[in-house]
From TrEMBL:
Gene3D superfamilies listed in its UniProt record: DD-peptidase/beta-lactamase superfamily
Origin: domain of life: Bacteria
Name the record gives this protein: Beta-lactamase family protein
Domain spans labelled DUF7586: 359-442
Domain Beta-lactamase-related: 28-342
Organism from which the protein derives: Streptomyces coffeae
């Protein structure tokens, strides 16, 4: 009997959940005094809900209405850079000077630019780049003022919009085409994001500033920011961002694989304080909210606010877009959309299934192993993968990917990147495991010569 497609079976939200989501969007629009606010939820790879509230006559936004998404643009640029890395056209450790002549940032690496640890200044040389045309800064040298570097490269996290302008220039240099065209061809079209663009396309929301002490509005300019565009130029819709969130969740081999996306959401920069609830990966913001790990990005431009958060554990994403310079807490709204669905309708796990096949030699490796006197258990997973876990949950556990040469590479935890080898004894059978010089034997401190430093010949004893 074929098991039902659980993801499809529970994709549509329950009425009570939908009402709670709409109420959260309504509260966000009302309390934030936003001309309009759109929210959306992606679950299991598809848009399952969207809702909007508007207080402006003649404006009835929906999931197909464009809003400017500001720094969410940076995630798209980071995807383009990681594609170049995966194709072997650059290394994340490359200094920018290897590819571009930018004296102001020549010592910064590609990875440091992605993680905002390059030490570059936060903003481009004045006037206010988000409200003025990019023709004022036609070349990369025009992006920097008297102090292009405010910290030593690699020392600390310091958010830099010009840093992502340089990454856009890097994409142009290595692809030989404007970064916006590269984005369209390599990311937007493969993902079906036809309503994401550098310039607004109808229907789109107008950007407004809301007076802090009176309920009146002021139109905000929407300039083409030129060289600074990779830092925050894009316009998109809730529906398109749901498609992008689905990609960020599982990857798409036409764009980037799941492994590269997992690398991007791994913390790459130290937090600014000990009591941190957020961080930064490679072009992605990271957050911890109520015990939940979220990744994505926030964005703002004059007249607009945007947030996209993905929870891989819940297979959910929350999206919030508003057309106000300040006021509505779209970050909290997007977070709450994820939380509401996860609370009202917890994810139903996929059914357990036996492996389609199992190599007897790998089965022989499973079971208890000991690092000294500390017990671990080795489990066999799909695709010849292994998982080493401490018994009782206290200790250093990791998952391992099988390699063609018969070894395994750590994927997470303390042993991420380390090599696991099976060492055979004189009889050819597995004798012990070598994990980056950590030796695991079949019994505690096995007296077979494998344990570094040797084992007392008297063996275990009572006192």
């Amino acid at each position: 009997m074929t098991a039902p497609d659980d993801a499809a079976a529970w994709a549509d939200l329950l009425p009570a959940t939908r009402r709670a989501l709409l109420r959260r969007v309504a509260v966000g629009q009302s309390e934030g005094r936003a001309p309009s606010l759109v929210g959306a939820v992606m679950r299991e790879g598809r848009l399952v809900w969207s809702g909007a509230r508007s207080g402006v006559d003649g404006l009835a936004p929906d999931a197909d209405t464009q809003y400017r998404i500001g720094s969410l643009t940076k995630v798209f640029v980071a995807v383009l850079v990681m594609r170049l890395r995966d194709e072997g056209l650059l290394d994340l450790a490359d200094p920018l000077a290897k590819h571009l002549e930018v004296p102001e940032a020549e010592g910064a690496t590609v990875a440091q630019l992605l993680a905002h640890t390059s030490g570059l200044a936060a903003e481009a040389r004045g006037p206010w780049w988000e409200r003025t045309p990019g023709t004022l800064r036609p070349e990369t040298a025009d992006l920097f003022g008297d102090r292009p570097l405010v910290h030593p490269a690699g020392r600390r996290h310091h958010y830099s919009n010009p840093g992502f302008a340089l990454l856009g220039a890097l994409v142009e240099k290595l692809r030989g085409a404007p970064w916006g065209e590269v984005l369209r061809d390599e990311v937007l079209e493969p993902l079906g994001m036809a309503r994401t663009s550098l310039e607004p396309r109808s229907p789109y929301a107008a950007g407004w500033a809301v007076h802090p002490w009176a309920d009146v509005l002021l139109p905000e300019p929407a300039k083409d920011t030129g060289r600074m565009a990779p830092a925050g130029q894009l316009w998109s819709t809730a529906a398109d961002l749901a498609r992008f969130a689905a990609f960020l969740l599982d990857g798409d081999d036409r764009v980037l694989g799941a492994g590269t996306l997992a690398e991007m959401r791994t913390p790459a920069a130290a937090p600014d304080s000990q009591d941190w609830d957020g961080g930064y990966g490679l072009g992605m913001q990271l957050a911890r909210r109520g015990g939940r790990f979220l990744y994505g990005h926030m964005g703002s431009m004059p007249g607009f606010l945007a947030t996209l958060w993905v929870s891989a554990e819940d297979r959910l994403a929350g999206i919030a877009l508003a057309n106000a310079t300040a006021g509505p807490a779209v970050n909290a709204v997007a977070d709450d959309l994820v939380r509401i669905v996860a609370r009202h309708e917890p994810r139903i796990p996929a059914p357990w299934r036996p492996l389609p096949e199992a190599d007897p030699a790998l089965l022989a490796l499973t079971g208890p192993w000991y690092w000294g006197a500390t017990p671990y258990v080795l489990r066999l997973r799909a695709g010849r993968a292994l998982e080493l876990s401490p018994v009782g949950g206290k200790g250093r556990g990791s998952r391992f990917r099988a390699e063609p040469d018969g070894t395994w590479t750590g994927l997470d935890g303390y042993h991420a990147g380390e090599t696991l080898r099976v060492v055979a004894g004189e009889d050819g059978a597995p004798a012990h495991l070598d994990l980056g010089t950590f030796v695991f034997t079949r019994e505690p401190y096995a007296p077979d010569g494998a344990v570094p430093g040797g084992v007392d010949p008297g063996g275990w004893r009572a006192l």
